[in-house]
Amino acid sequence: MNLHEYQGKEILNSFGVEIQRGMVATSPEEAVEAAKKLTEETGTGWHVIKAQVHAGGRGKGGGVKLAKSLDEVRDIAGQIIGMDLVTPQTPPEGKRVHQVLIAEDVYYPGDSEPEEYYMSVLLDRAKGKNMIMYSTEGGMDIEAVAEKTPHLIFTEEVDPAVGLLPFQARRVAFNLGLSGQAFKQMTKFVSALYKAYISSDASLFEINPVLKTSDDRVIAVDSKVTLDDNALYRHKDYAAMRDIREENPIEVEAKAVGLNYVDLDGNVGCMVNGAGLAMATMDLIKQAGGEPANFLDVGGTADAERVETAFNIILKDPNVKAILVNIFGGIVRCDRVAQGIVDAYKNMGSIDVPIIVRLQGTNADIAKELIDNSGLDVQSAVAFQEAADKVQAVLA
Ligand code: GDP
Ligand code: MN
User: Fold this and answer.
1) CA–CA distance, 105 with 142 (Å, rounded to integer)
2) Which EC class heads this enzyme's classification (predicted)?
3) Ligand 1 pocket test: which of 38, 95, 135, 221 has the largest number of ligand atoms within 8 Å of its C-beta?
4) Of 179, 197, 311, 313, which is least surrounded by CB within 10 A?
5) What's the DSSP call for residue 117?
6) pTM given for the model
């Protein structure tokens, strides 16, 4: 699950990371109220208005703007709230902005040398370790830094069983070229950031930029956070941060009805029982010259109702040109699944795309007969290859 910048900052702050303070607003009036409160707390009359959407590169797309007065706060918030923000990381049509973060301006006017660094903590699955990635070249596109000046990106591997050791945090501060008070602040920053990452069961915490002010404060100005969905059961407060407006609507709907569905870019819809068979089926589709439109594991109970729900979800994707149903009947008998498919099909009236059904396992022969005699636009297959050939034929 991804978080908004302001939510990531809340978590960071709760673990002692110094952040650029701010408040969320959903209207220009709320934005002005937030700015007034922030001025009381921080003393600064300047604020940045930041679009809260799950996408980076907002600055470039006009989603981050500086306001030097309350009138400007109102105007800019009015422009940003409700806009479809287009950045290199959004779909071409952009993402609708529902809320903005009103944040204190931490780039002091006249500060001649604010330094912007890049820092992230992430999981290195291949090494089985956590990794702190950091660079002196913050604020900008880190992918561009990685491409043009890879020697300016440092990494620090952290053994999850040992945790971050003090010398490692010092090495980070040293490699960033810091000394004195800034060095101390940076080691504190790195330790607190790592603690936030571990304690929240995250797979990513990215802070770009980390700002060092001329008076040696080290502040998280931005945050991009991904939490592990499988650990959310032990973080009820973080689970409540989910913003489904930012997520794929078909996936949200599938989740609500208990289906394990992931939307993909292809043209062949899949309905499969078991994650392993689902993976194999996706390979099968590729070999047949198609591209899977989704990953869908219907689980153990493939009865008529569940099959119908799954068909409905798959058909929400306009790119689907054919559906491959690949079910292994072990505990659930193939003839019952076949009956379920026939019933679901009839109940739905008509389905506009061809369906290929492969049922294998207990009573597969009876199931095939049921499908073949149904009179519906459903083709049956028994062998894997046969199913692949039939998918290829309908796509041709
Ligand atoms: P992103 O573009 O989505 O990564 O959004 P960021 O939160 O990183 O903000 C983009 C840029 O806005 C930063 O790199 C800063 O240069 C600038 N910015 C952010 N906060 C402030 C601020 O308090 N004052 C000023 N003057 N600029 C800021
Ligand atoms: Mn950023």
Assistant:
1) 23
2) ligase
3) 221
4) 179
5) E
6) 0.86
CATH classification at residue 252? 3.40.50.261
Nearest-CA residue for atom 25 of ligand 1: 107
User: 197, 222, 245: which is the final residue of a domain?
Assistant: 245
Where in the sequence is the domain holding 79, given as residue range(s)?
21-105
Residue closest to 104 by CA, chosen among 16, 6, 197 = 6
Q: How far is CA 336 from CA 30, 308, 360, 363, in A?
A: 57, 14, 12, 9
Ligand 1 atom closest to Cα of residue 59: 2
* Ligand 1 atom 27: residue of nearest CA: 107
Distance from the CA of 180 to the center of ligand 1, in angstroms?
A: 26
Same domain as 254, residue 236 = no
Question: How many CA atoms, within 13 angstroms, populate the side-chain half-sphere of residue 328?
Answer: 12
Q: Distance from the CA of 119 to the center of ligand 2, in angstroms?
A: 11
Pocket lined around ligand 1, Cβ cut-off 6 Å: 20, 48, 50, 56-59, 64, 66, 103, 105-107, 139, 208-209, 221-222
Give me ligand 1 centre to Cα 64, in Å.
6
391 and 311, same structural domain? yes
> Please, is 306 exposed, middle or buried when counting C-beta atoms within 10 Å of its C-beta (0-12, 13-18, 19+)?
buried
pLDDT tens track, the chain, 396 positions? 999 999 999 999 999 999 999 999 999 999 999 999 999 999 999 999 999 999 999 999 999 999 999 999 999 999 999 999 999 999 899 999 999 999 999 997 666 778 999 999 999 999 999 999 999 999 878 999 999 999 999 999 999 999 999 999 999 999 999 999 999 999 999 999 999 999 999 999 999 999 999 889 999 999 999 999 999 999 999 999 999 999 999 999 998 988 999 999 999 999 999 899 999 999 999 988 899 999 999 887 777 788 889 999 999 999 999 999 999 988 888 998 899 899 888 888 888 899 999 999 999 999 999 999 998 889 998 888 899 899 999 988
- The count of structural domains within the chain is 3
Q: Report the atom number in ligand 1 closest to the C-alpha of 138.
A: 14
